[in-house]
Amino acid sequence: MRLTRFSDIGLRVLMYLHGADERPGPVTVAEIASQFELPINHLVKVVSQLSKMGWVRATRGRNGGLRLAADATKLRIGQVLRQLEGEDELIDCEGSSCRLAVDCRLRGALHEGLQAFYAAMDRHTLADIAGGGTGEHIVRMHRMFLVTPHTQSAA
What we know:
CATH architecture of the domain at 5-87 and 125-147: Orthogonal Bundle
Keywords: DNA-binding
Strand content: 5-15%
Radius of gyration: 18 Å
CATH class of the domain at 5-87 and 125-147: Mainly Alpha
Protein name: Rrf2 family transcriptional regulator
GO molecular function: DNA binding; DNA-binding transcription factor activity
Number of helices: 7
Structural class: mainly alpha
Pfam families: Rrf2
InterPro entries: Tscrpt_reg_Rrf2, WH-like_DNA-bd_sf, WH_DNA-bd_sf
C-alpha cells in the first residue's frame, strides 16, 4: 500500500501549520509550496480539502493565509487519512474479470489489513507526529522563512 501524493501533502501541511502557532501572522500557500518544493496548483487543492474538513482555516486577501483550525491533540492521523485517501478497497474485485472472484479470500484479507492500518494510525495525533525533533525542525523552517526575503502571494 502506498499513500497518494494528495495525502502526503495534506499531512505535511497540517504538520507545518501546527508548528506555526507562535508566529505573528498566518502561513501562505506560497510559503508552504516553497518550503516543501510543491506545485502551487496541487497544494491549493489539498488546502481546499483540508479547509472543507474544518482542519485548516483559510483567509483570502492581502493579509490572508492559513492557520490550523483543528485541535492537534485530538486530530487522529487515521481520521485524516480516511478522509484524504478514502476507504475504498485496495483492489477492485467488482471491476476486474478475475476468475477467483467467486470464492476468493484475498478481498477480505486486504480489507482487514486496511482497517488494521487505519486503526494503527488512529493511535497517533497530529500533535504526536509534529512534536519532538520533527516539531523543532518545523519551527526552524518557520524561522528561516521569516528572516529570508521572499515574494509571497496570499492564500
